[in-house]
Amino acid sequence: MTTLLDHQDSHVTTAVRGTVGHIAPEYLSTGQSSEKTDVFGFGILLLELITGQRALEFGKSANNKGAMLDWVKKIHLEKKLEMLVDKDLKSNYDRIELEEMVQVALLCTQYLPGHRPKMSEVVRMLEGDGLAERWEASQRVDTTKFKPQDSSSSDRYSDLTDDSLLLVQAMELSGPR
């Protein structure tokens, strides 16, 4: 998405463009787009591939709009990753690759854009280079000081993606999917 923007123009847009559910929280709230906005969307795409569910459909079926990311974080902490896997795969997947893919997705979907990896780093991590170090470093960061004081970041993101607040018409979305 960021490569499609004319960099001579402002990076601030008047209309949110992109796939709802994949849009980074900072883009929804400020309209500012960056490479890290795309990284967030890619992280959500990875989670959709793992779970076999679209981000917004997950929220509707679980009666928790915008809750996919919170659910994945919880399951990861509980070390029950098998609960994440697309049911159609049954047990036909590599558990180590699943763990690594979830870690990459969680790194990509960190709330603060500055904490997300660059896309070139994401590619290297998916190829098996540097993930362990990056993951370890992310776990040492005290994330409590980065959360908004009035509500959790996931609550704010959920509010921003709520159907009642974000009625994006198909014509407003940028380009084909």
Automatic annotation (TrEMBL):
Question: Which residue intervals make up region (Disordered)?
Answer: 138-158
Q: Where is the Protein kinase domain?
A: 1-112
Q: Keywords, A to Z?
A: ATP-binding, Kinase, Nucleotide-binding, Transferase
Give the top-rank taxon of the lineage listed in the UniProt record for this protein: Eukaryota
Regions of compositional bias (Basic and acidic residues) in chain numbering:
138-148
Per its UniProt record, what InterPro entries does this chain match? CR_Ser/Thr_kinase (IPR052059), Kinase-like_dom_sf (IPR011009), Prot_kinase_dom (IPR000719), Ser-Thr/Tyr_kinase_cat_dom (IPR001245)
- A GO molecular function for this record? protein kinase activity
Q: Does the keyword Iron apply?
A: no
Pfam families with a match to the protein in the record: PK_Tyr_Ser-Thr (PF07714)
User: Do you know which PANTHER family this protein is assigned to?
Assistant: CYSTEINE-RICH RECEPTOR-LIKE PROTEIN KINASE 3 (PTHR47973)
Q: Please report the name of this protein according to its UniProt entry.
A: Protein kinase domain-containing protein
**Which organism was this protein described from?**
Vigna mungo
